[in-house]
Every structure is written in structure tokens, then in C-alpha cells.
Design brief:
This protein has about 450 residues and is α+β, with helices and mostly antiparallel strands. The protein has nine helices and 22 strands. Strands 14, 17, 18, 19, 20, 21 and 22 form a seven-stranded mixed β-sheet that branches.
Length: about 450
Amino acid sequence: MLIDVTVPQLGESVTEATITKWRVREGDMVVKDQPIADVATDKADSELPAPAAGRVVKLLAKEGDTVPVRSVICQVDPSGAAVGAESGSPAPAPAPQPVQSAPATTTAAGVQGAHGPMASPKARSEALKQGVDLTSVQGTGDHGRITPEDVQRAVAEVPPRTEPPMSSHQRALAEAQMREQVLREVTESSPAPRVAKVESGAGPVAGVGYGSFKVPPYRPKPGDTQVPFTRRRRITADHMVYSKLVSPHVVTVAECDLYRATRVREAHKDRYKKEGMSLTMLAFVVVAVARALRENPSVNARVLDDSYVIYKDVNIGVAVDSPEGLVVPVVRRADELGVRGIVRAIDDVAARARNGKITMDDLSGSTFSVSNPGLKGNLFGGAIINQPNVGILRMGEIKKRAVVVEGPDKEDQIAIHPVMYMALSYDHRIVDGVAANSFLWRIREILEKADFEV
């Protein structure tokens, strides 16, 4: 009996994955848990292991295909017999899964949403390029959603376009309408409140403009270098635009005297180094943030449609750099970990991020985020909220400054201490100024007292 290899649920909110590379061919022998394919989602890349030992009978998807989660992409014969591969007859295709009913209208072509056919953004873009009317396409995705493959099939089934090609102005308008429709669908399926419809037409379009404002076209000049967006950069860009669109960002800044925390770090960093760990100021900040979140739960939340959720667990996402760009792995239940546990967790996820070994679980489930720009972080900066969180703390550079301190006899004195500015960006839909300032004030207090068990 053949074993179906399916795309697993690779993290919360992930609905599809792209097969970036097959590591096996039909007829190859594999062992259990051997990586057979590399898959990528909007969160990260990962390896897909073989569920059992046997012979690869059939690959049901090509490199570059985007497939829904839980769909069958490969079949393995655990007995080792190459069913179909040796006999020359193809292996039987998996039976089609019934499409679940969805809150939409079913037509002869497919499922209709409130603003037309339900289709992924990639499918809409492909349909625009190919001149395919989505109302005539039968969707095979989840709940009848139209996929890029459905559009390609429709292209093969209809005669080529005979109308003249669109002008640049017509194409810009068509792309604007497509983006507006995609935005409607995203915001209607999003946990965030609805975004108001733009009554005057399509919203701003990157590279085109908005209303009477038009972006001047780019004219190449000698020495210019055009750098294509990587997949990771495109995902990051879309995430940042979405976050700024749905969350009214407010930034508040605190000055933190790190004299005591620095002395604690200096007293223990060599011992940690001998154990193969890095005792950084980031670890102390994450510990302080975790404690402050437990005491100020309104910042440990996410926005739903007509309500919001205050999380029980404190899971802190820590922004780190990777070869493909910025990723935000998660330190889970950070409030239950001491300095040592936080250091170990940060070192682990940072190392795997740099080596490209980060997993979907590492990047899922954050309830708040911390960003550390590093040694060249400059004075301070307001970070964009990592959705669906309602807050993110950005560390600034640590610099020695003249500060006023209280002497032994309660008199004011001037001393040279390491100081850092911390900027809290918060979502003003549910986090009020009083709550945000109390939260940031508490982080500063914890760091300045430096009451850490190291």
C-alpha cells in the first residue's frame, strides 16, 4: 500500500507552501525522516522528511509549485517495490478531496466571495497577465479558492486573446483594481478591524501613485544596480505595509541607566563564555520585558474583529538577522525563564537562523517582540509592529553619558554611566497611552535595579 506524503501544517495561519527543491527522484530509495523536499512558506523555509522508508513512486508536484497544506505531493512504497516506476504504468493519482462548504455563493464556475471569485493574490496577478476572467475559472484550492495552477489550466483551455494589448495606463488601473480587491479580501479575513473602502477609486499603488500624484518613471543610468526582491524581502515588505495599514502606531521612548545591569553582566560574562553562551544586554532586556508583560497584560494581546485577546502565555519574538533577511524566532513562556534560560534560548534560535535551520514552530506564536539593532543601532528608532502583536520594543545604542545620581548623603552628583534609549511602538486601537507608558516605565525600572539571578 502506498504512503501519501503531504504538506504538513507549517505554522499558524499558513495555508500553502511552495516546493523550492526536490531532493529525490522517482525510483529513489529513502529512509524514514530523510529530507525529500525543501518547502517555503510566508514565514520560513523548511525540509520535508520522508514519513517512512521505501521507494519513491511518484512526485505529484513540480519544483516551484505552490500547493495547499495537507495536499499530497509524493507517494512512497514502503515495500520497496517501484509500483508503476518499473512497470511503466503511472501510479494511481490520489482521489480528489471534497471541497468543504464555505460562507460564499457557488456558481457554475466556482465559489464567489463578497467581491467576486475567491482567489489568491498570486492567482489574481497571473489572471491579469494572461487575460483570464476569474469568474469562468473553477477553483481547486481550500473552499474552492482559485490557485495559480487553476489559472494556468484556464489559459490552456481557452483560445488566445485577440484584443489589443493594454496600454501602460490601462495596466496601471487594472493592477490598482486588483490590489484593492485583494486588500478587501485580506482585511475581511484578517483578525484586524475592517479597513475603510476608498470611495474615490483604488488605493495607492506602488510604482504608480495615487489620485493626481504619479510616481515618476525610473530611467536607468550608467552605474545603477537593480536588485530583484528575494522571496524573503517581498514577504517582509508586504508584512510591513500591512502592519502600518491596520495598526495606528504610537511611539514612546524611555532613557534607561544601565550602570547596575552592566556591572552584573561584567561580573558573569566570562563564566557564561566558558559554557559556550553569550551574556548580552539583550538577554537582560528580554527578561525585563517578560516580567513587565506579566504585570501589564494589556500589552500581551492581539486584535480580533470586534474584540481583542489577552494571552495567557508570554512568548517573546526576538528579531535576528539571517542570510535571507530579518526573522523573528520566538522564546516561549519567557516569563518562566531566568537569565540563563533566556540566554540559552536566544543563542539557540539566533545560531539556527544564521545557519538557515530555523523552523516554522520557531517563528510562530509570538505575543510581543523585541528588536535589537546591534552595536550600530544609533540613538533610538520606532520599529514597525510585528503582526499580530500590539507592541514591539526597539533597543537603542548603549553609550556612556553624564547622569545625575544620588550620593551617600542624598546629594546630587554627576557620574558617567552607560545609558540606552528604548522605544516602544504600540497599537493604539487597544493599547492606551497610560498602559503603554506604565509598561515601558516598568521595563526601565527592572533594568535599572538589575535584580537578576544570573
